[in-house]
Structure formats: C-alpha cells, structure tokens
C-alpha cells in the first residue's frame, strides 16, 4: 500500500494533481479497465497526451484485488527424453472386500507406461523391484 501511495505521489509531481485525480476517477467510473485500454480510450476521446502516459504508469489499489487468478498450466515440457530415462514410483493402498492391499506403481515419465504390482512382503531390499519387473507383463 505504501508503494502505491509513493508511486501516486511521484505521478502527482510529474503530471500534476488534477491530471492524476481525473485519470483515477475516469478509471473507476469505467469499471477499472486495463491501463492500455484506458489509454486507448483517452486517445480516442482526444484528451491530452500526458493523460494517456499517466494512465499507463498509474497503479490502482483496487485492481490487483479483483484480478483473475493465474491460470493453471495444462501442459509442460517433458523432463524425460526417451523411454526409461526417468521413472516415477509410488505406493498406494486398495481396499477390496474388507482386505487392504499395498500396490507399487511405476511409471515411465516419457512414454507414460505404467506397471502396477501388489506388494506381498515389505522390506527395504532393492531386490523387491527386481521381483516386480520379473512379474510385470512385457
């Protein structure tokens, strides 16, 4: 908030109190348009050029609050360049007929090929991954 006040004070010194006040009032009356849209409107209305440049530098304290949230990425650059370059491993539980079964899932990050295998014996040995790859369909 202090930063916005400081920038408005600088604008008042640069363009004058009346210009900044008028531009802010027009900005509010038109429903808080973007700086570019408001500057274009002021140019079409044949206002002075300093009004349009003031509009581009103006920061409204209300606009960031009502701005839309940033979009979620729907795609990304793949991390793996070829099959078996990078894999993701996770363990999850499945409940079926009152019994809980632990399942290991392995996914190749390039091809998205997935292998799921039930975990029969829990141990910290690396041999358990060998058992999964031997029992998985090729």
Distance between the termini: 61 Å
Q: What's the number of extended β-strand segments?
A: 3
Class of secondary structure makeup: alpha+beta
Portion in helices:
40-55%
What coarse outline follows from CA principal-axis ratios? rod-shaped
Oligomer: single chain
Question: What Rg do the Cα atoms give?
Answer: 30 Å
Low-confidence stretches: none
Number of domains: 2
Largest sheet: 3 strands, antiparallel
Instruction: Report the total helices.
Output: 6
| Strand arrangement, major sheet | 1-2-3
Structure description:
It is a single chain. This protein has 138 residues and is of the alpha+beta class. The chain folds into 2 domains: 2-66, no CATH class; 87-135, no CATH class. The protein has helices at residues 2-15, 17-29, 35-44, 49-57, 63-66, 127-135, and strands spanning 87-96, 99-108, 114-118. Strand 2 (99-108) and strand 3 form a beta hairpin. Helix 1 (2-15) packs across helix 2 (17-29) and helix 3 (35-44) packs antiparallel against helix 4. The protein is rod-shaped and about 80 Å long.
